[in-house]
Automatic annotation (TrEMBL):
Species per Swiss-Prot/TrEMBL record: Desulfofustis limnaeus
Pfam families referenced in this protein's UniProt entry, alphabetically: SRP54, SRP54_N, SRP_SPB
Chief localisation class: cytoplasm
HAMAP family: SRP54
Official protein name in the record: Signal recognition particle protein
């Protein structure tokens, strides 16, 4: 996500850094380019204009800091303004107050409501809450079924809605049922249309009047850019939404919806969907996102993800092996498993600071999910003995491994070569104090 904008902004800042002293003209030119970059990212026209006006005013008025170069100061201001544009601080959903709480998901058809209902249920369940999924889309029998399937996968109860009931009645009944069974969070999945229509809006307003809603989350497909923003605005005017879920963010290289929706609607993005899987829902953090847009990576999210999947004992074991130069192909395979648990390579890499610049270098290795799968297959086709001592893998063994993994000898050679290079690099790192032992120190 945001790759195009990151590229463009990096170009602007590179030019700025080239000037020892920044004049008003330099800033004006940079801001013209920032504005173009925002418009190309499909940011709302008015929003882009206000953004560069705010940055210009601050850049010209700010006292000169001794610590930062003029170029860095402008980047800092752009970062601050981006955080503000994206909503300031992260907003959690409201789960306190009288229980059960009710969360209604609304949005156009195909925006990702049902999937998000499942993702939310999974996330809330893992936090110890007792969610109750309520299908209130009575027009498509498949919609009820889709939620039932999700519910049974997640082991979360689903209200037995039928297509002959009115959505508002379903919600009333579901609330009574939740009170009776002590479910603490209703997640209501509503019907969507291809376009906004009055009947749909009326139906949602009926639910809003009949059931006290803690959250009305507007679900929008980030890939639809400014359309998502316009539709969000209409829903907000009719329903007073409390927050936004932007789905399919992982595929949105432009980012225009994310950058405009808060300013236009005044309502915060609370979650982002970053994949079809049920764990691909993240709380939206404006500050981390701003850092990512500016190519500074998102180390905090990376650490959180690593902490969620990395087994501490395993990490200690690997750190010890690395120290003693005993990191084998067997350990390499374990590491691949851990990385896979954190998400797609593309997602993980997007959080690494400076990755965009690195990728632009000639001959830079490009992350490739298929390569990872191949590497895994190749290592799996080795015997345990081979994995623990790669030196015994001669030409004959290479041929066998290639055949076993459905790859070629050249590909087996490539894996062995990267592994040897990794060992060499680790050896170098061991010479540097703290380079590897630092991995162990983090608690
Ligand atoms: P609804 O009509 O609003 O209920 O939309 P669905 O939940 O049925 O989702 C429509 C399609 O979008 C499905 O194929 C989902 O798997 C997909 N989808 C939902 N959220 C995401 C997301 O965050 N990323 C991606 N890539 N696909 C998503």
């Amino acid at each position: 996500m945001f790759e195009n904008l990151t590229d463009r902004l990096e170009g602007v800042f590179k030019k700025l850094r080239g000037h020892g002293v920044l004049t008003e003209e330099h800033i004006a030119e940079a801001m013209r380019e920032v504005r173009m970059a925002l418009l190309e990212a499909d940011v709302n026209y008015q929003v882009a204009r206000e953004f560069v006006d705010a940055v210009s005013a601050k850049a010209l008025g700010r006292e000169v800091s001794q610590k930062l170069s003029p170029g860095q100061q402008v980047i800092k201001i752009v970062h601050e303004e981006l955080v503000d544009l994206l909503g300031g601080s992260a907003e959690q959903i409201r789960l306190d107050g009288p229980q059960p709480v009710t969360i209604m998901l609304a949005g156009l058809q195909g925006s990702g409501k049902t999937t998000t209902a499942g993702k939310l249920a999974a996330q809330l369940k893992s936090k110890g809450r007792k969610p109750y999924l309520v299908p209130a889309d009575v027009y498509r029998p498949a919609a009820i079924e889709q939620l039932q399937v999700l519910g049974s996968r997640l082991d979360v109860p689903v209200h037995p809605s039928t297509t002959d009931s009115k959505p508002v009645d379903i919600c009333r009944q579901a609330l009574a049922e939740a009170q009776d069974k002590h479910y603490d969070t209703l997640i209501i999945d509503t019907a969507g249309r291809l376009h906004i229509d009055e009947r749909l809006m009326g139906e949602l307003q009926d639910i809003q009047r009949a059931v006290k809603l803690s959250e009305i989350l507007f679900v929008a497909d980030a890939m639809t850019g400014q359309d998502a923003v316009t539709v969000a605005d209409t829903f907000n005017k009719n329903l007073e939404i409390t927050g936004i879920v932007l789905t399919k963010m992982e595929g949105d290289a432009r980012g225009g919806a994310a950058l405009s929706i808060k300013r236009v609607t005044g309502k915060p993005i609370k979650f982002v969907g970053i994949g079809e899987a049920l764990d691909a829902l993240e709380v939206f953090h404006p500050d981390r996102t701003a850092s990512r847009i500016l190519g500074m990576g998102d180390v905090l999210t990376l650490i959180e993800k690593a902490e969620a999947v990395v087994d501490r004992q395993e990490a200690d074991r690997i750190a010890k092996k690395l120290k003693r130069n005993e990191f084998t192909l067997e350990d390499f395979l374990d590491q691949i498993q851990q990385i896979k648990k954190m998400g797609s390579l593309e997602q993980i890499l997007s959080m690494v600071p400076g990755i965009n610049k690195l990728r632009q270098l000639k001959d830079a290795p490009q992350p490739n999910e298929k390569e990872l799968v191949k590497t895994e297959a190749i290592i799996r086709s080795m015997t345990r003995k081979e994995r623990n001592n790669h030196r015994i893998i001669d030409a004959g063994r290479r041929q066998r491994i290639a055949a076993g993994s459905g790859t070629s000898v050249a590909e087996v050679n490539r894996v062995l070569k990267s592994y040897s290079e990794m060992l060499k690099m680790l050896k170098k790192m061991r010479g540097k104090p703290g380079a590897i032992s630092g991995m162990k120190r983090r608690k």
